[in-house]
Amino acid sequence: MINLATKEKKTFSFDKNHSLNILYAKPDKYKQLEEISGKYDEIINTGSNLSYSPLGINKNGISLDLKKFNRIIDFDENEKTITVEAGITLIDLLNFTLSKNLWIPQLPGYPTITIGGAVSANSHGKSCALHGTIRKSIKSILLFHKVNGWVKLSEKENKNIFDLTIGGLGLTGTIVQVTFKLININNTFFNTKKISVNNIQESKKYFSRENINNSFIYSWHRADNLSNFGEGIIYENLIDTSSENNFKNFKVKNNNFRPLFFPFWNKFSIKLINKFFLLFNKLDAKEKKEDFLKVIFPFYGKENYFNFFGRKGFLEIQLLINQTYLEQFLDEFKKLYQIHKPSISLFSIKNMSGEQNLIRFEDNKVCLTFDFIKNKSSLSFMEQIDKLYLKYEILPSVAKDSRIGKDTFYKTYKYATEFKKKLYEFDKKRTYKSEVSRRLEL
Ligand SMILES: Cc1cc2nc3c(=O)[nH]c(=O)nc-3n(C[C@H](O)[C@H](O)[C@H](O)COP(=O)(O)OP(=O)(O)OC[C@H]3O[C@@H](n4cnc5c(N)ncnc54)[C@H](O)[C@@H]3O)c2cc1C
Questions:
Q1: How far is the CA of 109 from the centre of ligand 1 (A)?
Q2: What percent of the chain has pLDDT over 90?
């Protein structure tokens, strides 16, 4: 019998909208994982707890912190495959693969996110127009389930559970190992181009499906007032193929997220900083060489953006919308803006490719992101935006928006009931539950 200490701690969702007293354990052996899982009726798995909404925490049962399962298990240079434990961080995985000129390109924007977290959220990165979501790079998964035991998942083995697990928000069990298909990358430097735009109309052509090529295209826009709405910068990153570089390991600091006691962001400071940011970008070189960390993990080193919201936190919505509806939706968005006057600190656009199914945030659509200061006007504005989802066939991200209710979820995720049914078929007791799954009655 292995004795594994459990501890209580107050835990927050990344956006600070939810705080829970949780009981957690940090197993470092598979036997411990089996034993501790056997003791609790409700379990949730936790990676780095960097999800904006409370996906990896639960007030009942046990939260399993899997960061000690962080080894590289197997690497096949000829086949270009790697098997890692799910608690490994993106940066530790990359430090190994990049030294072999290999990588997976679907990397969410912070280096200490774990593989288990990224697979469960079906994460995507800057290049999601070209490379889709992380689902595209997964060859197989080794899952541990309290009732069903050790289960191998792939297109050929237990395909149903494989599909439920990728983007399944940790509800099918503990992902213990993941095998990825890697692709070549000959350089960790990118050529970045910046193009100034005055409004969304001017940006539209960069996000048309015909414009998808080898570069990673995304944008940043002002949304701090209506007269400049949409003014911004289009960024285009292209891997520098002109030379090969000698890759040296990246050293990253641990999460630097420490919210200020008093928030710095308000309508005035957002407007001022946005103005300077835009000016700086306009004066800066239109084309330059940028390093991997800066391009792939844009928030690394810029943690103060989040810290400046203070202890009350912030709100984000991330929406997938058909290109053809983009302008019409943003026109209604602006009308509601005029009425509710929300405080928007970030507005960005990128393209995505993929196929929506089950509860996966994925489609051949444009991906819009808005961050808000949490206040009454932002909240009433967001409630009105929620009502536009059906009209414009919008898919909102559950991982990013910690407000999403059951009604919005089942109306927008048309395969969610199928997901739920299959999940119950796999585990009648529905062992793996989070704060979010409870709210969504999954
Ligand atoms: C600064 C920042 C930038 C981000 N940028 C992006 C981005 O560009 N694109 C994007 O898609 N997302 C992005 N995200 C969101 C992030 O990718 C996801 O929320 C991811 O799930 C967080 O991983 P984590 O290791 O922190 O997992 P946690 O937040 O701890 O858990 C997330 C989910 O994964 C499950 N889980 C974790 N480990 C396991 C496991 N071993 N087995 C089973 N389930 C498990 C949990 O139960 C939970 O449902 C960003 C987040 C931050 C903070």
A1: 10
A2: 92
- Greater confidence, 211 or 279? 279
At 213-253, the pLDDT tens digits run: 888 999 999 999 999 999 999 999 999 988 777 788 999 98
Give, in order, the Cα–Cα distances in Å from 275 to each of 201, 224, 271, 279, 280: 20, 10, 6, 6, 9
Q: Which of 114, 144, 252, 258 to mutate to test the pocket of ligand 1 (most atoms within 8 A of CB)?
A: 114
> For 297-302, which contacts have Cβ atoms below 8 Å and span 24 or more sequence positions?
297/90, 297/107, 297/109, 297/110, 297/111, 298/109, 298/126, 299/109, 299/110, 300/109, 300/110, 300/111, 300/252
Beta strand residue intervals within 187-313, DSSP E: 189-197, 216-221, 232-239, 287-291
Q: Give the ligand 1 atom nearest the CA of 168.
A: 49
Domains of the chain (ranges; CATH) run 189-402 (3.30.70.2520)
Structure pTM?
0.97
**Rounded distance between C-alpha atoms, residue 109 and residue 161, angstroms:** 27
**pLDDT over 60 at 3, yes or no:** no
